[in-house]
UniProtKB/TrEMBL annotation:
Protein source organism: Thiocapsa imhoffii
GO BP terms: carbohydrate metabolic process
Protein name in UniProt: Putative glucose-6-phosphate 1-epimerase
Single GO MF annotation: carbohydrate binding
Catalytic activity: alpha-D-glucose 6-phosphate = beta-D-glucose 6-phosphate
Keyword check for Isomerase: yes
InterPro entries: Aldose_1/G6P_1-epimerase (IPR008183), G6P_1-epimerase (IPR025532), Gal_mutarotase_sf_dom (IPR011013), GH-type_carb-bd (IPR014718)
Domain of life: Bacteria
Recorded family membership: Belongs to the glucose-6-phosphate 1-epimerase family.
Record's keyword terms, sorted: Isomerase
Keyword Acetylation: no
Length: 303
């Protein structure tokens, strides 16, 4: 479907339009008086969200990010599904699953009574997905753009056997200086330290999470509300989660960032990832004809 046809079906006058974006990819632009947002159907990915009161965007997107078919876009909120992390079976399939590099279909748009804007995108299984993951499914992402941003990732088991998966909303939050940032809400939680030398170490968090080296941690038994304190941008980012008891906190720091071709060397200073996930011991099993919804709501507050 071309851009003109997409706008005829899904455009909302003076609020939502479908455009051709970077790399020739189709994008959804929203400006509704409460906020602006940019959504990429490639990957089903929110790339930008800025409420009207905010001085800066909520999200970081690398200037060197790949905007092309078959590549993940570095920034915004990539969708990790149906596995989080490396291929769990070691078959050479894409890290973090295939959803973040897949073309999603625009299914619905609407303007809500409260002034927010609703967008629904989806993927249904076909011979291409089943070659990577041999299950029948419908995957939806529902996005609500208002004074806050809400994202719900909904998996529907369309087959006759249980689905087992891990997944995540891999949010890259824009910050003034990662070295000055503090992540609150995880004190007392145990985490698996994926950046530790040798075997993964299990450690209990004491106080806020801070960044002065590479951080790559899977926290378990986490509360439903976390926050990021950013004194440089003078704001606090609130994160409310639904049906997630694990969280990943990540920043690549100097050496790992240098090894990533889709990051500038200094980019590690400008984002931290606090990811709403089901991973590690939190493997989700969905019975036939049932749904599972992983959700996050983000807000920006003055510090």
């Amino acid at each position: 479907m071309d851009i003109e046809a997409l706008n005829a079906q899904f455009g909302i006058e003076n609020v939502l339009r479908v455009v051709t974006g970077r790399g020739g990819l189709t994008m959804i632009e929203i400006t509704n008086g409460l906020a602006t947002a940019l959504i990429s159907p490639h990957g089903g990915q929110v790339l930008s969200f800025r409420p009207a009161h905010a001085a800066e965007d909520l999200f970081f997107v690398s200037e060197r990010a790949y905007f092309e078919a078959g590549q993940a876009i570095k920034g915004g909120v990539p969708v990790c599904w149906p596995w989080f992390g490396p291929d769990p079976q070691g078959q050479g399939r894409p890290a973090h699953g295939f959803a973040r590099i897949w073309p999603w279909t625009i299914l619905a748009t609407a303007q809500e009574p409260d002034g927010s804007t609703f967008v629904q995108l989806g993927i249904a299984d076909d011979e291409h997905t089943r070659a990577l993951w041999p299950y029948y499914f419908n995957l939806l992402i529902e996005i609500r753009v208002g004074t806050t941003l809400a994202i719900d990732l909904i998996t529907r088991n369309a087959g006759d056997r249980p689905l087992r998966l891990t997944q995540g909303l891999h949010a890259y939050f824009k910050v003034g200086d990662a070295g000055e940032v503090a992540v609150h809400g995880l004190s007392g939680c145990r985490y698996l330290d994926k950046a530790a030398d040798g075997a993964d170490a299990v450690i209990e968090q004491t106080g806020p999470v801070r960044f002065d080296r590479e951080v790559n941690r899977i926290y378990e038994a986490v509360p439903a509300e976390l926050s990021i304190e950013d004194p440089v941008l003078k704001r606090r980012i609130g994160i409310e989660t639904k049906q997630s008891r694990t969280a990943v906190v990540w920043n690549p720091w100097v050496e790992t960032a240098r090894a990533m071709p889709d990051l500038d060397d200094a980019d590690y200073r400008h984002f931290v990832c606090v990811e709403t996930v089901n991973t590690a011991s939190e493997v989700i099993e969905i019975p036939p004809a049932q749904d599972y919804s992983l959700g996050a709501r983000y807000r920006i507050e003055s510090a």
